[in-house]
Amino acid sequence: MEATPSLACANKCVFCWRHHTNPVGKNWQWKMDDPLEIVNSAIDQHTKMIKQMKGVPGVTQERLTEGLSPRHCALSLVGEPIMYPEINKLVDELHRRQISTFLVTNAQFPEKIKMLKPVTQLYVSVDAATKDSLKAIDRPLFGDFWERFIDSLKSLKEKQQRTVYRLTLVKGWNTEDVDAYFNLFKIGQPDFIEIKGVTYCGSSATSKLTMENVPWHSDVKAFSEALALKSKGEYEVACEHVHSCCVLLAKTEKFKVNGQWFTWIDYESFHDLVASGKPFNSMDYMAATPSWAVYGAQEGGFDPDQSRYRKERHHRSSH
């Protein structure tokens, strides 16, 4: 389930898929919905959306039924979820229902990151590696955006649960700064670095991106390998998902056990740990990575137990 408790954001990123139809702001200044109401409504809307897939070619009954009761929630759909004043109550409510939480923040609210309760996985968007390129790509509202960005990475370092730097590669904008990106690693010391090619969402008055700015999976791999090499073994390329144009670097000392990767999540353990109220860390709920998801596997991150549905395309010949 994808959701957000805040449509507003403190950035106007060039690759924002909303084309800036959502509000922007430096602080919360809107009518606030109750966290319980947000969770109930999100599940309700999610269910309605899944039901519409009934009968669509390639959709199996088993998957449809599974989709009707969400077990995971990505708090990242749009805006800046961490701006929502009751974010901790919202997270509690999702966990109470055994729904995992993947929260993405745009690294402009370091104090909010500090105050955040444990989530399953906390991402910080690292859209650029230098002050100038961050200003050009994220187009932040805050004058002290760079200080806030660095402080957000420092706040991330204090977190005990799974932490991720999320890098969106935009060809011609931020794909050259391997050294500068590497310098940011030691500030936040994330468990993972997720590197993804930008998704082209059409051109608009607010974004000048074209398909030329979308990297190939081979570009993403080369960038990821260069970063891993730079870290001198601290991080290694662990997983890839070719279809998503996405590669994962993982902290070797934590997630590589006797030569085997443990980048996956044991969700049952996570919920038990949250319910216990005791301190815990990312190694307490890690799970073994299946062979098909490991970097370089022939399957390229596709689960062999699932079959890919290929839509028939009837394009007219240009001849």
From TrEMBL:
Domain of life, source organism: Eukaryota
Cofactor: [4Fe-4S] cluster
Catalytic activity: N(1)-methylguanosine(37) in tRNA(Phe) + pyruvate + S-adenosyl-L-methionine = 4-demethylwyosine(37) in tRNA(Phe) + 5'-deoxyadenosine + L-methionine + CO2 + H2O
UniProt keyword list: 4Fe-4S, Iron, Iron-sulfur, Lyase, Metal-binding, S-adenosyl-L-methionine, tRNA processing
InterPro entries: Aldolase_TIM (IPR013785), rSAM (IPR007197), rSAM_sf (IPR058240), tRNA_wybutosine-synth (IPR013917), tRNA_wybutosine-synthase (IPR034556)
PROSITE patterns linked: RADICAL_SAM
Residue stretches making up the Radical SAM core domain: 1-236
Keyword Acetylation among record annotations: no
One Pfam family linked to the record: Wyosine_form
Protein name (database record): Radical SAM core domain-containing protein
